[in-house]
Amino acid sequence: MDNRKKFKKHAFSFLLFLMITGVVLVLIQFANWLPLTLQKETLRRYSSLEEVKASLPALRIYVPTYFPQTISWPPEHLFAQNRPFPWILMKFNHRDSSEEALIITQSLSGRLPGQMPGEFKEVTEKVPYELRGRQAILEVGVCRNGEQCSRIDWREGEYQLTVFMTAAPFDLIKIAESMLH
Amino acid sequence: MTIPNVFHTYLGMYTAQSFIHALIATIITGAAIEAWKIESPKVRQRFRLSVILIAIFSFPVYQLINRDRSSLFFRVDALFDSNRWLDMQLFGIVPLHLFLVLIFAVTTFIFVFQEMLPILRHFIVPTVEPQIAVIKPGEESPVRRALKPLHPILPEIFIVHDDESVLFSTTFKNPAIYISVGLAKRLTVEQLQAAVAHEIAHIRRSKRPILLAGFVLRTLMFFNPVVLVEFRRAIRNEEKICDDIAAAITGKPAILADALKLFYSPADEVEGEQLAAPPPLKVRLEEYSHTLQLETRIARLEQWTGRAESDGWLPLFLSMGVIVAVNYYVV
């Protein structure tokens, strides 16, 4: 077989391979989209709290009324689901940078749909804290990027609420208190 | 009440992703095999074993590269998030992740009963029954004389006093070939040479025990149905590789094909044997699979050209590149 023929054969094989790979990619994307259509209340990204309320009316959402000036509104990321269990996550960034500032999650009995953002590298202090009559746990420590972090967890009815902030706990407590009307 | 999804844990994510990654790898390597019309069993076997490697190592390697790959933010924007399916509930009651658990359980059952137990039995029960005599043929025995052209490459030969058609080899430290009297009587001299050349090929290949390494790795994926299928395909490829080596040694592939025909008899060719009742479905399926495999091997040998095929590294590397890139976004 001369070189020209060989090259043609290889080029054809390459194109055929790319075509089949393309079809496989489309099928994978389709398989990823299908559950969202089959089950409306499954985990997905939302653009606003209003959209969450409209799509998942059964989900009770706790939103802070106090919001520090340094944090931008609306949330950068907003995920929610009502199946297999109710859960919501709101992630807010700093106003001046796109860095993570505040993460609020609420879940049924503390169940989580996956690995959560807002991890401590090291917890330096963990104390019980009374939050408007609720027994909360307040943690202070260092984030993965070396910044100071704080987190507060408490139970509100059937929900477990968590507020995580890349800052000292002063604003964190104010935010948490403002979520309880 | 909802049953907690075990696939949210690291171990669960590993098992689920090893399955999906292997599935995608199988489809893409299959595409490469079709696109480049790869016929060489050696190259095909490389593809099969790569799928097993992908299944074992992809998840830990991806996690090392990016530990946030399992985070919710990554999953939501991924090409495919397995938890979307696994968190779903059939009719609002039955969680779909239970089906994956069931698939893994069935695969584990098949692995234990079809692969592990036969291997253990092989170590406990001798391959040749103790009451059957095994002798080393003398220099002037008919079998030795028939195998004379193979003498320079011939390992130890043993004759098994059994009327059944038996031919097998032991590999590694003490390589030897065992031929039954029944088989030696049924085969012509040339067929016997071809059949023994096939066993010599197995012994030669055992010096680079790639398949053994594949089996050790494959046992780690005992639950993974894709790995189960791919490893069995790799074993079938091994038989074809040894057929090619045997054909190259004797230069007579058609004779090896004739010898193989003695090891199977299609249902419509069974002569004089009337069974009281049909064998169980499992036995029939196994026989069908065995016959089908032998038929494929015979057909290959009958069309054997001896032409060296390309080594297939380009399609392999290309498909591995695509698989690694795609699977990174499949969580």
Q: Nutshell version of this structure?
A:
The complex is a heterodimer of chains A (181) and B (331). Chain A has 181 residues and is of the alpha+beta class.
Topology:
The complex is a heterodimer of chains A (181) and B (331).
Chain A: H1 3-38, E1 44-45, H2 49-55, E2 77-81, E3 87-93, E4 100-108, E5 120-131, E6 134-143, E7 148-156, E8 159-165, H3 169-178
Antiparallel strand pairs in A: 1-2, 2-3, 3-4, 4-8, 5-6, 6-7, 7-8
Chain B: H1 10-35, H2 41-65, H3 72-76, H4 82-86, E1 89-90, E2 94-95, H5 97-124, E3 134-135, H6 142-146, E4 156-160, E5 167-170, E6 176-180, H7 181-186, H8 189-205, H9 210-220, H10 225-250, H11 253-261, H12 281-302, H13 313-328
Parallel strand pairs in B: 4-6
Antiparallel strand pairs in B: 1-2, 3-4, 5-6
Helix pairs in contact in B: 1-2, 1-10, 1-13, 2-9, 2-10, 2-13, 8-10, 8-11, 9-10, 10-12, 11-12
Structure, described:
The complex is a heterodimer of chains A (181) and B (331). Chain A has 181 residues and is α+β, with helices and mostly antiparallel strands. Chain A has 3 helices and 8 strands. Chain A has an 8-stranded antiparallel sheet with strand order 1-2-3-4-8-7-6-5, covered by helices on one side. In chain A, a hairpin with a 2-residue loop joins β7 (148-156) and β8 (159-165). Chain A starts with a helix and ends with a helix. With 331 residues, chain B is α+β, with helices and mostly antiparallel strands. Chain B has one domain (6-266, 279-328). Chain B has helices at residues 10-35, 41-65, 72-76, 82-86, 97-124, 142-146, 181-186, 189-205, 210-220, 225-250, 253-261, 281-302, 313-328; strands at 89-90, 94-95, 134-135, 156-160, 167-170, 176-180. In chain B, a hairpin with a 3-residue loop joins β1 (89-90) and β2 (94-95). The relative contact order of chain B is 0.15. The chains are: A alpha+beta (181), B alpha+beta (331). The A-B interface holds A 10, 13-14, 16-17, 20-21, 24-25, 28-29, 31-32, 35-36, 38-39, 42-45, 77, 79, 81, 83-85, 89, 91, 111-117 and B 2, 4-5, 8, 24, 27-28, 31-32, 34-37, 68, 70-73, 75-81, 83-85, 87-89, 92, 95, 314-315, 318-319, 322, 326, 330.
